[in-house]
Automatic annotation (TrEMBL):
Protein name per the record: MarR family transcriptional regulator
Domain of life: Bacteria
Transmembrane segments: none
Domain spans labelled HTH marR-type: 41-177
SUPFAM superfamilies: Winged helix' DNA-binding domain
Pfam families for the chain: MarR
Length: 194
């Protein structure tokens, strides 16, 4: 929440503020940042926290509503999107999208099919293969509830000007690169003491 929107009952600092985490400038040299710069950066960090919390809340609510786990929800979303794109969804394409093993994908598909969320159909070009589509009832429920809520992201992006969208995208891409732990030495160790 931006600084000016902070309730009076909260302290004058937030847990994600720059000076709350790096008061001595050990990780970020903030000596060249003005107080306004720091406040704006702190507000961006607070907005990111609010976004993550809203996403987590929506994810949990959608899983409860659909009575599915997070991987099931990702599978349903992928199958709906693939259908919208005119793509044929198979166990292999779903496995690649979700990063699951062959066995885990089979269990997931069997579970979703037995719950009435998807159906198998013969592959139009390969008699040995089957395709998977979301049932009409699951599609309708997903699109009219969770999908409608998720389109708020698109509305927010559409409300920006083109230069603003470019700046936001550049910021989010840079943030994703900065946070990705792939190249960090500490992530290559199994435990802190090894």
């Amino acid at each position: 929440m931006p600084t000016h929107d902070r309730p009076d009952s909260e302290p004058g600092w937030r847990v994600h503020d720059l000076l709350s985490n790096d008061p001595d400038g050990r990780y970020i040299d903030h000596t060249s940042l003005s107080q306004t710069d720091r406040a704006e950066i702190d507000d961006i960090m607070a907005s990111l926290v609010a976004l993550r919390e809203a996403e987590a809340e929506l994810s949990a609510a959608s899983q409860r509503y659909m009575r599915l786990n997070a991987t099931d929800m990702k599978a349903i979303h992928y199958l709906i999107a693939a259908d919208h794109q005119g793509e044929i969804a198979t166990a292999a394409t779903l496995r690649a999208h979700l990063g699951l093993s062959s066995g885990a994908t089979t269990k997931l598909l069997d579970r979703l099919e037995s719950a009435g969320h998807l159906q198998r159909k013969p592959h139009p070009d390969d008699r040995r293969a089957v395709t998977f589509t979301v049932t009409n009832s699951t599609r309708e429920i997903a699109m009219e509830t969770i999908g409608r809520q998720q389109f708020g992201r698109v509305r927010a992006a559409a409300s920006l000007t083109s230069p603003e969208r470019i700046a936001v995208r550049r910021f989010l891409d840079e943030m994703a690169r900065a946070l990705a732990p792939r190249e960090s030495e500490w992530t290559k160790k199994n435990t802190r003491n090894s």
